[in-house]
Amino acid sequence: MKATQLLHNLGQSLWLDNITRDLLNKGTLEGYIDELSVTGLTSNPTIFDQAIKNSSAYDAAIREKLTKGKSGEELFFDLAIEDLTRAADLFRPIFDQTNGVDGWVSLEVSPLLAYDTATTLAAARELHTRAARPNLFIKIPGTKEGLPAIEEAIFAGVPVNVTLLFSREHYLAAAEAYLRGIERRTDAGLNPQVGSVASVFVSRWDAAIAGKVPAELKNQLGITVANRIYKAYRDLLTSARWQRTYNAGARPQRLLWASTGTKDPTASDVLYIKALAAPFTVNTMPETTLKALADHGELGSIMAADGGNCEDVISAFTKAGINVDALATQLQDEGAKSFVKSWNDLMTVIDSKSSVLGRPAEKSEAHHEDTGH
């Protein structure tokens, strides 16, 4: 049996961290669903940037949208929603079979809105309405500025993939925002069942300290922090406050492992996949990692609900000179900046493709905004 099937049987959802029109047109995504136990999908501006830049699959659609006077951000969201609604429809039987637990796709709001709760909420609602699919998450960063928008989106009934979480504290803040939104819905007499995942980025921890710690700690920090977060997750799920929401008809926000492709060429290509095997979680992985996992026939042990020896290992990192709390702040800040850069790169690709395929595209206002980072 493939390791992908073993992981699925364990109770972890395998999602693909990629979307391209070629994946859809050639039936590749369908094949991953049927053969590799893939039950969802995530996207981001970098993925769309590469997909649009490196393929002619979008050219006809871009030409058609240019004739309607569309450009920049508006044109991009048209393309993204076309891809993601097709993907959502492929996953819809899984969504229906699991009563909305699984079978999701994700679309990110513009990171240029990060410091404006009202505009982020308006964009989230508009994108979710335009897609008109119940199994589409809107991705909102779990930064200090993003948390109020997450609460408001959940209260408004918009499913949210909270992204850019690194530490236990980041996760707990995101879970609190989600729970407040759900409790407000219950208090208002609304259905409290609004889907959400909390996406924790793992491999970036190890990339940030590569070459700065003793050999025995190499490629251990991301997994250790993930164990600490998993303990917090399991503790929350059994807390009285969360169980009151379940009693009112709500579902828990699921924990999602992101950034799980191995960045160290000397390490196992499924390092983070094997270490993060746990029921009632999601692992979203790049295509190369998914295929590598399919080639393996076994998994390691599942994660310990009590976090195992994570605190001892974190103490070892502290002794080695790594300030884990400060690094978490740095990684989230750098991640937010890289989101903005990816977005601007994507707008440049849209503009240049538009220029080649039709009339010179009007530069989108968003492309020229001061990013605030």
Structural class: alpha/beta
Largest sheet: 8 strands, parallel
In total, how many beta strands?
A: 8
Could you state the order of secondary-structure elements as H and E?
Answer: HEHHEHHHEHEHEHEHHHEHEHHHH
What is the beta-strand fraction? 5-15%
Core attributes:
alpha/beta, 8-stranded parallel β-sheet, disordered C terminus, single chain
Task: Report on this structure.
The chain is built from 17 helices and 8 strands. An 8-stranded parallel β-sheet has the order 2-1-8-7-6-5-4-3. The protein is globular. It starts with a helix and ends in a 5-residue tail after the last helix.
How would you summarize what this structure contains?
The chain has 373 residues and is of the alpha/beta class. The protein has helices at 3-10, 21-25, 28-35, 45-53, 59-67, 72-97, 117-131, 147-155, 168-187, 203-208, 221-237, 240-247, 271-275, 287-295, 310-319, 324-357, 365-368; strands at 12-17, 38-42, 105-108, 136-141, 160-165, 196-201, 254-258, 281-285. It contains 17 helices and eight strands.
